[in-house]
Amino acid sequence: MKFVDEYRDPQAARVLLADIAALAATQPERKFMEVCGGHTHAIYRHGIEGLLPENIELVHGPGCPVCVIPMGRIDDAIAIARTKGVTMVCFGDMLRVPGGTSTLLDAKAHGADVRVVYSPLDALALAEREPDRQVVFLAVGFETTAPSTAVTLQQARERNVPNFSVFCNHVTIIPPVKAILDSPGFDLDGFVGPGHVSTVIGTKPYQFIASQYGRPIVTAGFEPVDILQAVAMLLRQLEEGRCDVENQYRRVVSGDGNPRALQLLQETFVVRPHFEWRGLGFIAQSALGIHPDFATWDAELRFEVPGLRVADPKACQCGEVLKGALRPWECKVFGTACTPETPIGTCMVSSEGACAAYYNYGRYSPRARARARIPVSAD
Amino acid sequence: MATDEDLAARDKVLDRVEAWRRRAPRLADDVITMAHGAGGKASQALLEAVIRPAFSNPTLDRLDDAAVLDVPAGHRVVISTDAFVVTPRRFVGGSIGDLAVNGTVNDVAAMGATPRALAVSFVLEEGLTVAEFRDIVADVAAAATRAGVEIVTGDTKVVERGAADGCYITTTGIGYVSADRNLGPGAVEVGDAVVVSGTIGDHGIAVMVARGNLELSSDVPSDTAPLAGLVEALLAAVPTTRWLRDPTRGGVASSCNELAAAIDLGITLYDERLPIKRPVVGACELLGLDPLYIANEGKMLAVVPADQADAAIAAMRSTEYGVDACVIGTVTEDHPGIVVIESAFGGTRIVDMLVGDPLPRIC
Cβ contact (<8 Å) for A1 and B340? Predict the structure, then answer.
């Protein structure tokens, strides 16, 4: 399969692992944060962490848009779903995210009409097919998915679909990264930059990380060879004393991103003054709300929502994990009270959450590290 | 006062009515109604007009409350049951009727038994068209013939509109296994090979495509198929086969996890060796699904001694439904109870038990 097979090629991987081993041999402990939930998932799915040298650590960041939605907003979504006449439509991984006391899946089992789609345009089509239902799309995601929500809102206006609205929880990537850079005790050596967010925003927005904070960043694709190459590029920068924004994902990402998508975002969304992030608290200018021109399709204006702040359960340490301050297995409730079947926090629910990824894929890795470490040759 | 002529005329009418009553009830309706489930004339009409013509065999035709079967000497009875609620009811490669036969037949075959008879129970929603019911029944009949089983008894119930989704089918399969054949997890040993009879993930993707969620350019057919023949060929070539399972809901991953837990040994699978059709790989990539967890309806997993792996593969490949059979893993003493998969370049990850449902109502 094009663009997948080449980037899973074992021979290419072996060469890169040899490069990484050689570079790491002359360097101290290095901690790189991979910001994007998709990277977390890919790293564990392919067992990459177990193949890296002992002194290279990949730390998981807040790039899982499902993980960072606070429980209060989930409760708001559940309240809308429970409203008579409403069909709540969302992506599959939103179903089990815990709110204060319940989940959308639970609401569905108790009679709420909750349905899963793969694209917001499917939700709009559903609204047109069922004019007597109030169809609400639960929009989540970084700048990766925001453009498709934007297209859907524009289509809703063009096709004049009155029974459709969007409950918008889109967030943007730069503010939380900056929050992490500013947090006390910050000790990361570089970043593996988000792949798909960068297809929209380009790589220029990351410049401040290199110039103001002195850390290299390499935007990477999602296949094993992409991630290994990005790690090699970061190590090379550190070895050569450089500090640049580099782009490994050239086949998809350009420096300027996607101007048409950015234009669409400008027209359809506004930046909220502040937004609560699970674990990171309130961050200014970090989320998108719906532009007044599309107010008719804003679920927050159409429905009454509790809008309450729900504190995370005392036992939950999702915030620390999201900041990269805690590794999943260092959380007090990891794997015992908090498992994929009985998640306390969102890091365990979403397939891109660091805890879920580690639990599902990597918890065997300490021994696997020793076993899977194949002799790397510099062929 | 009635004359003899009057009485004769009346008797003639009564005779005519009696003759009319003795005729087979006709099915005039074009949709299933509550009457068809009541056990009375409408039920009879449905039975005589649709069900019996399709399934007819000496045992069924007795229309007793239950079927009496003879058990061959030196054999034990194997019984399995499954309900089928797939939606949509028709997809490329098959229908709910095919699944209802093959699913149960394969469970019986997985014990090393020869499937012989099926009991079929329908729950129909009021409003289902008789035409569709006829098609489903025809599929069941054809699948039963292909699988070499007879439908010996059954039941039909009708529920109100909205109380069921069109048509649910439950089948119970009976087969006979030779008394000296004892397949099960207990026989599995460290070093054994894990073998699959063909490509994985086909059925789940076929149903997903039929749901209209995806617009794939190639039609992946469901792999629904009866596997008793494949099992017989395997057991003839490798009598020391340890364990068999058909990896339906939850896919190969779930079946391997069940085995690993039962034997408290580990299973290592090899990513490069998994046989997966390219369109299935593509569909899974698009949807974020893992083919290891997707239902199969015409595949068999087998665990065989390592030195018998080649013979097992050859035997399966010699049959109609086993052409892509291959070794996909090993039983190991490492990581007991856990299934691990190795990628092509040595990375490993856990293949855990499924949480939640990636594809509901798949079979």
Answer: no
Mean pLDDT of the residues in chain A: 89
A370 inside 8 A of chain B by CB: no
In b/e form, how buried is each residue of B168-178, taking b as 16+ CB within 10 angstroms?
Answer: bbbbbbbbbbe
Task: Tell me which chain A residues have a C-beta less than 8 angstroms from the C-beta of B347.
Answer: 46-48, 50-51, 224, 372
What is the rounded distance in angstroms from the CA atom of residue B62 to the CA atom of residue B43?
Answer: 17
Nearest neighbour of B338 by CB, restricted to A50, A364, A374: A364
What one-character DSSP code corresponds to residue A316? -
Q: Is the pLDDT of residue A373 over 80?
A: no
DSSP A53: -
A47:B349 CB<8 A? yes
Question: Is the whole-model pTM more than 0.90?
Answer: no
For the question of an ipTM over 0.90, the answer is no
Nearest beta carbon to residue B346 from set A360, A362, A374: A374
Alpha carbon distance A96, A104 (integer Å): 6
Find, in chain B, the residue whose alpha carbon is nearest to that of A340: B355
- Could you tell me which residue, B141 or B13, shows the higher pLDDT? B141
CB distance from B344 to chain A under 8 Å?
A: yes
Residue with tokens 């110039």: A211
Full set of structural domains in chain B with CATH: 34-178 (3.30.1330.10), 185-350 (3.90.650.10)
Tokens of B184: 């099960």
Element (H, E) at B327: strand B326-332
**8-state DSSP, A298:** B
Identify the weakest region by mean pLDDT among A285-299, A333-347, B104-118: A333-347
Q: Which of A228, A364, A374 to substitute to test the interface with B, most B CBs within 10 Å?
A: A364
Would you place residue A323 in the very low, low, confident or very high pLDDT band (cuts 50, 70, 90)? confident
Please state, in angstroms and rounded to a whole number, the distance separating the CA atoms of residues A51 and A117: 36
Is B350 near chain A, with CB under 8 Å? yes
The amino acid present at A374, given as its one-letter code, is I
Average pLDDT, chain B: 92
Q: A132-136, A363-367, B191-195, B347-351: lowest mean pLDDT where? A: A363-367
Kind of pairing, strands A281-284 and A274-277? antiparallel
Do B345 and A371 lie within an 8 Å CB cutoff?
A: no
Cβ distance of A4 and B335 shorter than 8 Å: no
Q: Quick one: pLDDT at residue A378?
A: 31
Option in B213, B288, B346 nearest A372 (CB): B346
Q: What span, in angstroms and rounded, lies between the C-alpha atoms of B297 and B278?
A: 18
Residue found by looking up tokens 């129970």 in the block: B121
Residues of A in contact with B213 (CB under 8 A): 118
